[in-house]
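Section 5.1 Outputs to date
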Amino acid sequence: MEMISFTVGHLPQTYFAKGAIATLPKHTRHFGTHVLLVTGSQSLEKSGRLNDIVAMLGNEGIHIERVAVSGEPSPQLVDDAVKECTGKHIDVVVSIGGGSVIDAGKAISAMIPVDGSVTDYLEIVGTKQHSGIKIPFIAVPTTAGTGSEATKNAVLSKTGKNGFKRSLRHDNFVPNIAIIDPELMLGCPSGVTAASGLDALTQLIESYVSTHANPFTDALAESGIAKIGHSLLPLYIHHEDTVIHRANMAYGAFISGITLAHAGLGVVHGLASPLGALFNIPHGVACGTLLALATKATIKKLQALGDSYYIKKYAAISELLTGYKSTSEQEACNKLIATLEEWVNILHIPRLSEYGVREVDFAAIIKDGSNKNNPAPLNEQEIMLMLQERL
């Protein structure tokens, strides 16, 4: 029997509860009285929650500067926000929104104390090493997807022919505090719920079968997969927009952030990066549209290799996700593939062609893509077939 061995990195101080947003003024005030509030461009304001949050902070004597994020954050957005903060003595950055908003706030908090463009510090793209010094950062997710409230990296994108999708990363960039209130997720648009939910599920599945998985990440991933299996379809199909279902999805997303940070991800995320760099495709859509096919191709290759360890893991995912107890691992794997294929259709996840992807682009996507920690590395032909099927 092999000795258990793993390392647990930084985690945020986390408040996960219905109504947890009420603790935001207290936690913000702990760091100071001047806050940079990073939000999405519309949804929080339209819901009326932004006014309530601003009023709560104001009642504590907190002065607010605000940055609005539209779409996935770019280095230019971060640089502009940091420039706007010059001389304003920001004590704490608070992001309230989806994964893009949290990534933007995380990067801004990291760049306020240092010189230069954030591009200089991005992995692969930049040449400078960040010191890890930052402004305190509080993450408040309003969607259940990326799990950025639990990770140490902020993903920034520059879209186009010479585009990139890279991370600003340091152990110190894990949020100081994560406030996860499922009530803030009520009313989330169905398309966002679907794509975000499949993003979280992809992260849980890929980290569970990662070649760097361990008993710690496995236990967490199993619990997250089960929660998403219980709540994603009721939210989308039956419109059961309840706090319980939103809490299950928020839990799954938060856990996926922890597991991806400690075990890594697989081929879906290895392809989502170049897709997001070359095309204006939301990250959750890129992951969701490829999840079923990547799972199918990986299982097929594992079976051809005679691998039993990861096949057992995929069989376990099947039962966790569907609640169905199969009579064999083969049946379980078939059930998992069929379920994921069905979900992609039921949740109306767009095809790649809807974002301008063409067959002529496959070579560039594959060239810049990777298998990451996929349990069975897929070759160019196998990846090409996946892309063709979701074109």
